[in-house]
Design goal:
The complex is a heterotrimer of chains A (about 500), B (about 120) and C (about 500). Chain A is mainly α and about 500 residues long. Chain A contains 19 helices and two strands. Classes of the chains: A mainly alpha (about 500), B mainly alpha (about 120), C mainly alpha (about 500).
């Protein structure tokens, strides 16, 4: 198979899978087999492209041209490759987890759940491989729409309210700000292609570029920069596998991925340095990091705490994009991966707790580690990675982010990252402490009696894979590192 | 002054037009509205026909010793327009009959009251 | 012979068929006849459009009376696009109409319905093809009178008052147009549009011409429901039979916009219209108000049909906004918007007609939980709604893209923001329907509700399919719209 065909297959496979999933809705086991096969197949397909990209090949293909000059086309570059690898691998793991979760939790309408999940992943592939901003925008919107039914899966008033926030923020920001920025870029430059070094330089004044940058950064609502962050806590009404994959990995990372792409390929790092708004937006990113951490400190609901932590961590990557140094790009690219592994582990654990104990509040989790040692051990690994302690993956990315900040001589940012690390420790370590060292008797106050054991096997399997991944990536960060180094090399 | 009176046909047109327009807007009775509409349209017909008149002109039939004719085209146009206007009036009245059957009144205000109650 | 007379056939076929239809007392026969005629009309339209696309503007002298004395039929690219649109919508809704009309209209009136429909089709096509200002008035009245009848056939008594209200406003509008045409004739001595365009510059700087311009503009604005002259539209669309709402939303107001284009660019010339009369600024202001006010009203509306009607008023605002820019890009965007919106609104109103068929109501309250019982209908509604909002890969996105680029190119970036903000308002009102249909628990009466019949679903999905196709490949529609805009603006420059 030629790389171009493989590329198309990567996008088409998950988009077509729902047909089969729907056809098999009466037979749950074959239905889930389709999901597993699709996700496994997708991962292999993406993997087969990996070495080509490392060698410097850039498979590219155009499939349509809705507006003369604007093509729906794909091209693989290192960052997209990294994102695609990450998403497809974690989809496979999440599929295993979902099967355990959805069945233990006796969720309704599982067929539509798996169908929309596959469509969402197809959109993520489209975003990862998009060859121009236009294509990226199409799949960006498709991702929002296809995840809406997942977020509101539970039905009822809560889901509806959450869904409203989700759709309102994401579509609102993307239609009003992002689309305006894209059309404006198009009318200024006459192209929307991703080009190393950017397309804006020389065509716009710094003032207009500033405005465009502001429109882009806020318009990409999926990056959850304050004040466009409230959709993420609202989306926590979704079933946990959705929160895990989509709102720790696919959707939010699609946001920061887009930010990085815009910074590198639309503005170009050199030009970004001349844009006055860059410095100003750095403060916004920094504020998001700190404020979201502070809010996370006050959360008792575990999933909400994770959501606020995600908001904070996403702005690390936005900050990286605005640091305008190659090392910053390396840090940002790595953090997409490292954070994803850690955060998905944490969400998996939260889901495991919900399935086995129906508990969502941290204050009810006294001594839970004694009954669910495996789950909570994985949780600890994830938490350590969020703080950025060795031997976890989070250390590597944080290291590069710090290097990038120092390189850019943004001592202010360095200070913020250190404070934020302390804050991370301040809200994650107490959970670990509660789980392992508090007596379960504390739960009696809530009138709860614990009789549960460990989570179902499928769930534990998924948790183990991602927790191990978090550690393995500390010792062997080569795969993502090679790709982002190549990216940083190109963007110079 | 002569300028004002010289175009007396326009004054007639304007008075008729405003009369019709006023009836359409101000009268709640639907039948009166249709009448107003008809007057309104008629004023325009007069506008067309009066402008076809040429001083000293006669009917456009070729005859000995006559060289000045009125312009026949506006007459033809207005014949068509009269048909249209007639159709409009007929349709309006037909609608009023149906409205009378359905609401038991031809008064716009009373119809509104009934619609509010629905 | 036949081919040479295509422009005449375009109008004559439905015109002659209408009285014949009246002779068929059996509703089924009347339907079959109207369907046949609509298909023929579409075939003629396709052939005509092909010819225009290949050869350029067609001029046809009715009865071989030479212009400017005889009546000329003149079809340029803009006209070809319009007849194609009107004929296609007319043909698509016919298979749909059979079940829907049988359900909504008393048996004894069905034949009358199809007769009026054919007359309305005649009028709309005539408006587009004619090159004669007075003839335009006549066709406008043919289409208007028949649409008053069509609206009054709605299933509630309020349809009657809605039709009457429309009749009063429509007649005032038509009379205004007549006054304008009369004044133009007074000054130039001609009624042929091309001839008018040539003779007008000599007398352009007179009060009479300015008054004529104002009368005609206001008259046409009533017909196309430009804010604030739109007040007839919400009631008319709400209480008309579903098929009529779809047909009118997709064609009647669009024909009005076409007339406006003709007048501004072909007859008066953009120099006079936009530079001397400043109609661009006025239209822009009205479009601004239309978009904002009508969208806001739609957000608070509980009757979905009325919601879509107000949405139409807003969408007309978008089209006018494009035209008000008076640039090639703006007019192109306006024309693309017009065509795409016809496809979108047609599909949405038809989907709503399916709901009405099964539910007997189109209020949000009654549509609770409907998606489980009518999945295909509601899926079509959602797809059409997404297109209305302007999601990528739909026709709505294409039109919004062109409009925003045209507005940005003209330097009015606050207007670009407005266009996008009001897309968000569209999201809100469409999503109110989605939430009602997908999230709420169905009421007790819902158990009997079945999916709509295939004869109605297929036309709906056909239009949705075209929407999606245009979203992926808009090159044809773009090239036609651009040629149309070029012809319109080019004529003005001559």
């Amino acid at each position: 198979m030629s790389p171009e065909i493989t590329l198309l297959a990567c996008i088409a496979l998950p988009l077509l899978a729902p047909a089969l999933i729907t056809a098999l809705h009466r037979w749950p086991n074959p239905r889930e087999a389709v999901t597993l096969l699709t996700s496994g197949g997708l991962f292999l397909l993406v993997l087969s492209l990996h070495h080509l990209v490392l060698q410097g090949t850039r498979p590219a293909i155009n499939i349509a041209e809705p507006i003369p000059g604007l093509k729906i086309g794909f091209e693989i570059e290192p960052l997209g490759m990294l994102f695609a690898l990450l998403a497809s691998f974690l989809w496979l793991v999440t599929s295993v987890y979902s099967i355990g979760y959805m069945r233990s939790h006796h969720e309704s309408r599982q067929t539509s759940f798996y169908s929309y999940f596959a469509v969402a992943l197809g959109s993520v592939m489209g975003i990862a491989f998009a060859g121009n901003l236009f294509t990226l925008f199409i799949f960006y919107e498709l991702l929002t729409l296809s995840t809406y039914p997942l977020v509101t899966h539970a039905g009822g008033d809560n889901a509806r309210e959450g869904g409203r926030m989700y759709l309102g923020y994401l579509l609102g920001s993307s239609i009003i700000l992002l689309l305006l920025a894209i059309v404006w870029t198009w009318s200024l430059t006459g192209t929307l292609d991703f080009r190393a070094g950017g397309i804006l330089e020389g065509t716009v004044t710094p003032g207009v570029a500033s405005l465009l940058l502001v429109l882009f950064i806020f318009g990409i609502g999926k990056a959850a920069v304050i004040p466009f962050h409230l959709w993420l806590p609202a989306a926590m009404v979704a079933p946990t596998p959705v929160s895990a994959l989509l709102h720790a990995v696919a959707v939010v990372k699609a946001g920061v991925f887009t930010v990085l792409k815009v910074a590198i390929y639309i503005f170009g790092i050199d030009f970004l340095a001349q844009v006055p708004a860059t410095q100003w937006l750095t403060y916004v990113a920094v504020a998001t990091i700190l404020l979201a951490s502070l809010v996370a400190l006050r959360q008792d609901n575990l999933k909400l705490l994770l959501a606020w932590s995600t908001i904070s961590q996403l702005s690390y990557i936005v900050l990286c994009a605005l640091l305008i140094t190659p090392l910053g790009i390396v840090g940002g690219g790595l953090h997409i991966v490292m954070h994803a592994f850690a955060k998905i582990t944490l969400f998996f654990c939260a889901g495991a707790i919900i399935v086995t104990t129906h508990k969502t509040r941290i204050s009810e989790m006294n001594g839970i580690g004694r009954r669910m040692p495996w789950t909570m051990a994985a949780f600890t690994i994830g938490a350590l990675s969020m703080i950025g302690l060795p031997p976890t993956a989070g250390f590597i990315s944080k290291w590069y982010i710090l290097l990038g900040a120092i390189d850019a001589q943004q001592m202010f940012a360095v200070g913020v990252i250190i404070i934020s690390t302390l804050l991370n420790a301040a809200y994650f370590l107490p959970i670990v402490y509660t789980a392992f060292f508090r007596s379960p008797k504390g739960n009696m106050e809530h009138g709860l009696k614990d009789t549960h054991g460990e989570a179902p096997v499928a769930i534990l399997l998924a948790i183990t894979v991602t927790a191990l991944g978090t550690i393995v990536l500390f010792f062997f960060p080569d795969l993502p590192l090679d790709l982002v180094l190549q990216l940083a090399g190109e963007s110079k | 002054m002569s300028n004002l009176l010289g175009h007396y046909n326009y004054w007639i047109v304007i008075v008729l037009m405003m009369t019709g327009f006023y009836i359409v807007i101000a009268r709640p009775n639907l039948i009166k509205k249709v009448i107003g509409l008809f007057i309104f349209q008629t004023s325009v017909f007069i506008l067309f026909i009066s402008m076809a008149k040429i001083e000293g002109g006669t009917a456009p039939i070729i005859a000995e010793g006559i060289s000045v004719y009125s312009n026949p085209l506006p007459h033809v146009l207005i014949l068509t327009a009269i048909v249209v206007s007639l159709a409009t009036t007929a349709l309006g009245l037909a609608l009023i009959v149906r409205i009378m059957e359905a609401y038991g009144t031809t008064n716009e205000d009373e119809i509104h009251v009934q619609d509010e109650q629905d | 012979m036949l081919l040479a007379n295509l422009p005449a056939l375009q109008v004559v076929i439905p015109l002659v068929s209408a009285p014949l239809c009246l002779l068929l007392r059996n509703p089924r026969h009347a339907w079959a006849w109207a369907t046949l005629v609509s298909t023929m009309v579409l075939a003629v339209a396709v052939m005509l459009a092909q010819r225009v696309y290949a050869e350029g503007t067609i001029s046809y002298a009715i009865g071989a009376w030479a212009t400017p004395w005889g009546i000329e039929y003149r079809i340029d690219m803009a006209g070809a696009l319009m007849i194609l649109l009107i004929a296609a919508i007319g043909a698509v809704i016919m298979p749909y109409a059979r079940r829907s009309i049988r359900h909504e209209i008393a048996r004894k009136h069905i034949t009358l319905f199809y007769t009026s429909y054919l007359l309305c089709l005649t009028g709309l096509l005539g408006i587009v093809v004619t090159g004669d200002a007075f003839n335009l008035f006549v066709f406008l009245e043919i289409s208007s009178l028949s649409s008053y009848v069509l609206i009054s056939l709605g299933s509630t008594r309020r349809a009657l008052t809605a039709a009457f209200q429309y009749l009063v406003m429509g007649t005032i509008g038509a009379t205004f147009i007549l006054i304008g045409v009369g004044l133009l004739y007074m000054m130039t001595g001609t009624l042929n549009m091309t001839d008018l365009a040539q003779r007008l510059p000599e007398v352009t700087d007179t009060r009479t011409i300015r008054v004529a311009f104002a009368f005609v503009t206001v008259g046409v604005s009533i017909k196309l429901a430009l804010f604030p002259l739109h007040i007839w539209l919400p009631n008319a669309y709400t209480f008309a039979p579903s098929v009529v709402s779809a047909f009118m939303a997709a064609t009647a107001t669009k024909a009005g916009v076409y007339v406006l284009l003709r007048l501004f660019f072909t007859v008066f010339g953009s120099e006079f219209s936009f530079t001397a009369m400043h109609v661009g600024e006025i239209l822009m202001l009205l479009a601004f108000a239309a978009i904002l006010v009508a969208s806001l009203v739609a957000v608070f509306e509980n009757n979905v049909k009325r919601m879509l009607a107000y949405s139409s008023v807003a969408q007309i605002g978008y089209t006018i906004l494009g035209i008000s820019l008076a640039s090639t890009a703006g007019v192109t965007a306006g024309i693309i918007y017009l065509v795409n919106h016809a496809l979108i609104k047609g599909a949405l109103f038809l989907a709503l007609g399916c709901v009405f068929l099964r539910l007997g109501s189109v209020t949000l309250k009654d549509m609770h939980g409907l998606a489980r019982h009518m999945p295909w209908t509601m899926a079509a509604f959602v797809a059409g709604g997404l297109s209305l909002i302007g999601m990528p890969l739909t026709a709505g996105f294409i039109s919004k893209w062109y409009l925003v680029s045209a507005v940005l190119a003209a330097g009015y970036w606050p207007l670009a923001v407005l266009v996008l903000v009001s897309s968000l308002l569209a999201l809100i009102y469409i999503w109110r329907v989605v939430e009602a249909a997908y999230f709420n628990v169905p009421g007790a009466a819902m158990h009997k509700v079945k999916e709509a019949p295939a004869s109605m679903l297929i036309p709906v999905w056909l239009l949705i399919g075209v929407n999606l196709y245009v979203g992926i490949d808009a090159s044809l529609i773009f090239s036609m719209a651009q040629q149309a805009a070029d012809t319109l603006i080019g004529q003005a420059l001559q």
